[in-house]
Amino acid sequence: MRQGFFVVVEGTEGAGKSTLVKRLAARFGERGEAPVLVREPGGTPVAEKIRQLLLDPAHPIEAVSELYLFLAARADLVATVIRPALEAGRVVIADRFQLSTEAYQCGGRGLDRTLFRTANRAATGGLEPDLTLVLDLPPDMGFGRIRAAGQGLDRIEQAGQAFHQRVAQVFRAATGPGIVHLDAGLPPDQVGQLAWQQVLARLPEAREAQGR
Fold first, then answer.
1. Residue 41 and residue 115 in contact, taking contact as beta carbons nearer than 8 Å
2. In this prediction, what percent of the chain has a pLDDT beyond 90?
3. CA–CA gap between residue 56 and residue 19 (Å, rounded)
4. Half-sphere exposure of 17 (CA within 13 A, CB side)
5. Which residues neighbour 2 within 8 Å (Cβ) at sequence distance 6 or greater?
6. 8 Å CB contact between 209 and 41
7. Number of H helices and number of E strands within the chain?
8. CA-CA distance, 76 to 46, in Å (whole number)?
9. Is 140 strand, coil or helix?
């Protein structure tokens, strides 16, 4: 590819983000490309340490402190992995990015969006995804999937039904350049195909071919 391409997969707990990331990576692989896969929080040694702290149920964390821990992890990931990969012309696929922070810390915790946007811009240097795929799924369905898989709940997953309803509302309402909503209640194969269609429509070479 002649320029980098940044795809983010967002959504509520149990919506199928990790599954979709793997499917998109396989599709890029069929094109002969090896995308860089990252997750948030995480993706670097520093960010993975922060992830352990953030998700450990044994450590209560005050809301503003939680916000800045997420942003510290993001700043390290962007500076050391995402931006260098994009500058090298690579595809980067992220399991969560800034929309998750707005959903969980602003919608869920009730923090001020102006605080979030200012601090997030400092953390990312203004980096924006080329495409954000939002997997829409009611929280009760997502947690049903988690229970069916026999998975334990981390600190944030344990935040309660009302919290996760507020989070889901922010995801459902999200709009803006490059944001596309997908019905995560559909079969995974169908979600994957719909997502890949959106990717193909927005790849840099597709934009150039259309004169955009």
1. no
2. 92
3. 23
4. 26
5. 89, 204, 205, 208
6. no
7. 10, 5
8. 7
9. helix
> By three-state DSSP, how is residue 100 classified?
helix
Q: Which two tokens stand for residue 195?
A: 């997502």
**pTM of the full structure:** 0.93
Rounded CA-CA distance 157/128 in Å is 26
Amino acid at 48: E
For residues 67 and 116, the answer to whether their CB atoms sit within 8 Å is: yes
Residue reference for tokens 């944030």: 156
Whether residue 84 is preceded by a cis peptide bond, meaning omega within 30 degrees of 0, is no
Alpha helix positions (H), the chain:
17-30, 45-55, 63-77, 83-87, 98-101, 113-124, 139-148, 161-173, 188-202, 204-209
**CA–CA gap between residue 70 and residue 67 (Å, rounded):** 5
pLDDT in tens, 42-93: 999 999 999 999 999 999 999 999 999 999 999 999 999 999 999 999 999 9
Instruction: Identify the burial level of 77 via C-beta atoms within 10 angstroms of its C-beta, where 0-12 means exposed, 13-18 middle and 19 or more buried.
Output: buried
Q: In Å, how far from its chain's centre is CA 136?
A: 13
Phi, psi of 122 (to 5 degrees): -65, -40
Cis peptide before 177 (omega within 30 of 0): no
Q: Beta-carbon neighbour count of residue 138 at 10 Å? A: 17
Q: Give dist(CA 70, CA 61) in Å, integer.
A: 12
